Amino acid sequence: MKNTILITILTGSIILGGFYYVSQLNKQKSIENQQENQLTQSQEERCQKLANQRKIDMDKENPDYFLSSFEYHYNPNTKMCVLAYAELRLSSIFHQSYMVIDLFSGKEIFKKMLLNGVKEENEGSEWRHIADLYFYQKEVRVLPTP
């Protein structure tokens, strides 16, 4: 009888302790997720500010250009702020540029210039493909450079 009561108390204590432990783990995981979400939001805001500043700087430096595309995206998997844009310059020599840049590091990922109005087959598809890869890749890896 005495042993049965002790076993019951011990079993109950283990079960209650297990529930308490699991609830603490869930609470800790929830806090970590919340902190990760706040960091991601902060990085997204930083990315947006850098992209907007880049656009302002481009407008000041190059009054003779036209942006046909200007997109940015913060990728939380790779922690990169990727800016992709295509510009057309209307100066004495007509040329078009395609750029993909990591704004956090300042690294040029892809750059292609078409001079004197020379059109290439699929001129924007390679640039768009590289931009999409960096926008949505799941892990940090070096992608092939053209």
Question: What is shown here, in short?
Answer:
This protein has 146 residues and is an alpha+beta fold. 49% of the residues lie in helices and 27% in strands. The radius of gyration is 27 Å and the shape is rod-shaped.
List the main descriptive attributes of the protein structure presented here:
146 residues; single chain; 27% strand; 2 helices; 49% helix; rod-shaped; four-stranded antiparallel sheet; alpha+beta; 4 strands
Show the helix and strand layout:
Layout: H1 2-61, E1 65-75, E2 80-90, E3 94-102, E4 107-115, H2 125-136
Antiparallel strand pairs: 1-2, 2-3, 3-4
3D structure, described in words:
This protein has 146 residues and is α+β, with helices and mostly antiparallel strands. It has one domain (2-136). Helix content is 49%, strand content 27%. The mean pLDDT is 82.
